[in-house]
């Protein structure tokens, strides 16, 4: 009985600490990285669609490298490898940069495919009324492509929430690392890692609810044409 009481006390005490790190570090890390990833994705997709010679090959090389190497290796290369070249980044900005570049490569393909799904006649119509390529993309193509890309991009966001646990490997004090510290002190690994898994599940469930709300709203705006993930 005393053992059970001790375990309950550990879980009750650790929960707000782990959740606090999730709110203060994990969520900001996810949001900042994902926003930057979307910016990278849109730029890369537009370069590929525009078929800008030289830049298109550079974008394809970037996507090939990122998608062909593990995220953990990328974190280690930037955080532990760049200091050998005299470049030192704090852990949190380093994690943001790596997550943004990593997710940006995957999202770039999602955005590119969504843009290509927009009928070609939309761009031709834009040119006919005197709009530039950037104006056509910003006002006509991207809004339609976003409706198609919304479900897979939401899934990418959910994956990123879970992937942030890898930031513990480069000393970012997010909620998984906080769990490791408590587990190392109390030796209640099963209970504590189960607890942090529940918190990750909670975060991802909230995002899933928001995704469904967003899809319903887009369906209402688009006459029900948005495809669900």
Concise overview:
This protein is mainly alpha-helical and 229 residues long. The chain has 8 helices and no strands.
Tell me the layout of helices and strands.
Layout: H1 2-50, H2 55-68, H3 71-81, H4 91-117, H5 120-128, H6 133-163, H7 175-186, H8 189-221
Task: Kindly describe this structure.
Helices cover 81% and strands 0% of the residues. The C terminus is likely disordered. The longest helix has 49 residues. The protein contains eight helices and no strands. With 229 residues, the protein is mainly α. The chain has one domain: MetI-like (MetI-like fold, Orthogonal Bundle).
Characteristics:
229 residues; flat; disordered C terminus
Number of strands: 0
Q: What would the CATH topology be?
A: MetI-like fold
Number of separate domains:
1
The multimeric state of the shown protein is single chain
**Please, what is the CATH homologous superfamily?**
MetI-like
**Helix proportion:** over 70%
The separation of the N and C termini measures 47 Å
């Amino acid at each position: 009985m005393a053992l059970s009481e001790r375990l309950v006390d550990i879980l009750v005490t650790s929960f707000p600490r782990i959740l606090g790190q999730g709110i203060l570090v994990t969520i900001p890390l996810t949001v900042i990285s994902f926003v930057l990833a979307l910016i990278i994705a849109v730029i890369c997709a537009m370069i590929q669609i525009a078929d800008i010679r030289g830049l298109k090959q550079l974008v394809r090389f970037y996507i090939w490298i990122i998608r062909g190497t593990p995220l953990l290796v990328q974190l280690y290369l930037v955080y532990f490898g760049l200091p050998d070249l005299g470049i030192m980044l704090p852990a949190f900005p380093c994690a943001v940069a790596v997550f943004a570049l990593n997710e940006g490569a995957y999202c770039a393909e999602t955005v590119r495919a969504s843009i290509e799904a927009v009928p070609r006649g939309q761009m031709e119509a834009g040119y006919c009324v005197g709009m530039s390529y950037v104006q056509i993309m910003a006002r006509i193509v991207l809004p339609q492509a976003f409706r198609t890309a919304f479900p897979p991009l939401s899934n990418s966001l959910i994956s990123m929430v879970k992937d942030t646990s890898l930031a513990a490997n480069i000393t970012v004090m997010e909620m998984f690392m906080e769990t490791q510290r408590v587990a190392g002190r109390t030796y209640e690994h099963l209970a504590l890692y189960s607890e942090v898994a529940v918190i990750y599940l909670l975060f991802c469930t909230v995002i899933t609810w928001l995704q469904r709300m967003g899809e319903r709203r887009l369906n209402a705006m688009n006459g029900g044409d948005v495809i669900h993930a």
